[in-house]
Amino acid sequence: MIGAIKQQAKDLAAELNRVDWPSKEKVMTSAWTVVIISVFVGAYLWTADWILSKGFAFFFLKTR
Q1: What separation in angstroms does the CA of 40 have from each of 14, 16, 29, 31?
Q2: CA dihedral 50, 53, 54, 57 (to 10 degrees)
Q3: Residue range 13-23, pLDDT digits in tens
Q4: pLDDT higher than threshold 70 for residue 8
Q5: Which of 3, 4, 9, 26 could tie 22 with a disulfide, CB 3.0–4.6 Å?
Q6: Cβ neighbours of residue 22 under 8 Å, at least 6 residues apart?
Q7: E strand or H helix at 27, and its extent?
Q8: Cβ neighbours, 10 Å, residue 39
Q9: How far lies 9's CA from each of 13, 14, 18, 19, 36, in Å?
Q10: Which helix (H) or strand (E) holds 24?
Q11: SS3 19
């Protein structure tokens, strides 16, 4: 049982050594890209929601 766990740990370490880890600069660039796109998508959705809610409120209040 202990031997199997040790072998699994060795296999895991060997596999992690084969991984092509990205550089810090690539990770930071990707992170900033995600943040900027998230802000733009959030602003777009907020604007669309605001316009639609004002439009529907105007339409339904006008028809009463």
Answers
A1: 41, 36, 17, 14
A2: -170
A3: 999 999 999 99
A4: yes
A5: 26
A6: 30
A7: helix 24-62
A8: 10
A9: 6, 9, 14, 16, 39
A10: helix 24-62
A11: coil
Alpha carbon distance 40, 53 (integer Å): 20
50 vs 34: CA distance, rounded Å: 24
Residue with tokens 């929601």: 49
Q: Which residues of 9-34 are buried (b: 16+ CB within 10 A; e: fewer)?
A: eeeeeeeeeeeeeeeeeeeeeeeeee
Predicted confidence (pLDDT) per residue in 23-46, tens digit = 999 999 999 999 999 999 999 999
Residue pointed to by tokens 């296999």: 11
